[in-house]
Amino acid sequence: MTAPQPIGAAGSSGRLLDPLGFPEPGEPKFASVTDVRRRLADVGYLADDGIAGVVHLADRLAKPVLVEGPAGTGKTELAKSVARITGSRLIRLQCYEGLDESKALYEWNYKKQLLRIQAQRVVADDGAAGTPSWHDLEDDIFSEEFLLARPLLEAIRSPEPVVLLIDEVDRVELETEALLLEVLSEYQVSIPELGTVRADRLPLVFLTSNNTRELSEALKRRCLYLHLDYPSLERERDIVRRRVPGITDELADQVARIVRSLRSLELKKHPSVSETLDWARTLVVLGVESIDAEQATATLHVLLKYRSDLERATKELASVPAER
Ligand SMILES: Nc1ncnc2c1ncn2[C@@H]1O[C@H](COP(=O)(O)OP(=O)(O)OP(=O)(O)O)[C@@H](O)[C@H]1O
Ligand SMILES: [Mg+2]
After folding, report:
1. Averaged pLDDT of the chain
2. First CA to last CA across the chain, in angstroms?
3. Which one-letter DSSP state was computed for residue 96?
4. Which of 107, 206, 229, 307 lies deepest, with the highest CB count within 10 Å?
5. How many angstroms is it from 126 CA to the middle of ligand 2?
6. Is CATH 3.40.50.300 the classification given to domain 33-100+151-227?
7. Ligand 1 atom 8 nearest Cα
8. What does the pLDDT look like over 130-189, one tens digit per residue?
9. Using CA positions, which residue lies closest to atom 9 of ligand 1?
10. Which pLDDT score is estimated for 129?
11. Distance from residue 123's CA to the centre of ligand 1 (Å)
12. What is the pLDDT of residues 272-324, one digit of tens each?
């Protein structure tokens, strides 16, 4: 599907759009890349300069960010954290196979419409008023009161600043991807019965993908790209320290090192950052302050979820003591 041409008219609020038809990006939200990084750290999200740089540019260029990478590397959390630091409302569209326009954009509340039609009939039968014309009825039941706004429409018409998270976009079919592209190209939605709704201000948009399938070139072109891989040893250690209350520095360091060495093995599924955190919390609950190979082996099931992976990791831990 080719992207529809952007319009160049006044927005629904009467605010003038720029010559390309987009709402103005508004005041920059961040002073610099360092500012992004510092503010993300304030809410517990530890980013490197690569991540912070893309967020900074996304705000300046008013472009969506496509965040791709393995499971549990902080893709969703990044969007949530950006919402928190910018004081924006987080609107999330969770994607799944079969997601369609009615769940992504809007749908009419048919049950309520039927009830209204029935109620009108009862009033008419009681002789309290004449039967309403179809025209009046149509105006009535296709009005705002009967509209169920779904996340994309919610984000576009929100009067407050919004971070729109389109989570796990690789799960939707091509038609829905085309719909997303259309909305992200124009930031407007046309509802035949009500008219066109345009964004007054551009939301910050994050699309996440686990790369289970290739997304279209057109969608990628529309976005800035951020590959979120497993963090460096130092950053993962800091994430553990930050997110696991009561952990000793020594244990945080050991956990990060062991997880890193496990990721270098050929496993069916490498441990994610969220599994690193689960493991660290498990060890703290067990009262461990400094881990040995035996304790590591006994709790590996928190990190690895395949029997073959567990066997391989157990062998590795037995042969090479955790690097210090
Ligand atoms: N840079 C980071 N700073 C702080 N916490 C992090 C960071 N990266 C990941 N985490 C932690 O890891 C957990 C998992 O992150 P998240 O759910 O965002 O992963 P994901 O990439 O969206 O995974 P999935 O692909 O499975 O949806 C979060 O709860 C968060 O606490
Ligand atoms: Mg996620």
Report:
1. 88
2. 54
3. -
4. 206
5. 55
6. yes
7. 74
8. 667 777 888 888 999 999 999 999 999 999 999 999 999 999 999 999 999 999 999 999
9. 74
10. 58
11. 56
12. 999 999 999 999 999 998 999 889 999 999 999 999 999 999 998 887 654 44
Comparing CA positions, the residue from 135, 149, 57, 64 lying closest to residue 103 is 149
H-helix or E-strand containing 314?
helix 307-319
Computed from CA positions of residues 254, 256, 261, 267, in that sequence, does the dihedral angle turn out positive or negative?
positive
Ligand 1: which atom is nearest the Cα of residue 235? 1
Ligand nearest to the CA of 40: 1
Give the residue-averaged pLDDT of 255-264.
96
Q: Give the residue, by CA position, lying nearest to ligand 1 atom 6.
A: 74
121-127 contact pairs (CB < 8 A, 24+): none
- 257 and 233 Cβ atoms separated by less than 8 Å: yes
Ligand 1: residues with CB < 6 A are 44-47, 71-77, 208, 210, 239, 243, 273-274, 277
* Residue entry with tokens 């952990």: 247
- In this structure, the number of other CB atoms found within 10 A of the CB of residue 79 comes to 25
Of the pLDDT bands very low, low, confident and very high (cuts 50, 70, 90), residue 120 is: confident
pTM: 0.87
CB 27 within 8 A of CB 4: no
Give the residue ranges of DSSP H helices in 62-205: 75-85, 101-104, 110-125, 134-141, 151-157, 174-186
Q: Which ligand is nearest to the CA of 240?
A: 1
Amino acid at 103: K
User: Which helix (H) or strand (E) covers residue 163, if one does?
Assistant: strand 162-167
The H-or-E segment that residue 71 falls in is none
Q: Is 264 helix (H, G, I), strand (E, B) or coil?
A: coil
Q: Please tell me the residue having the least CA distance from ligand 1 atom 10.
A: 74
The predicted pLDDT at position 46 comes to 98
pLDDT value at position 233?
Answer: 97
pLDDT digits (tens, 9 = 90+) for 241-255: 999 999 999 999 999
What integer pLDDT is reported at residue 10 of this predicted model? Answer: 34
Token pair 């987009």 is found at: 22
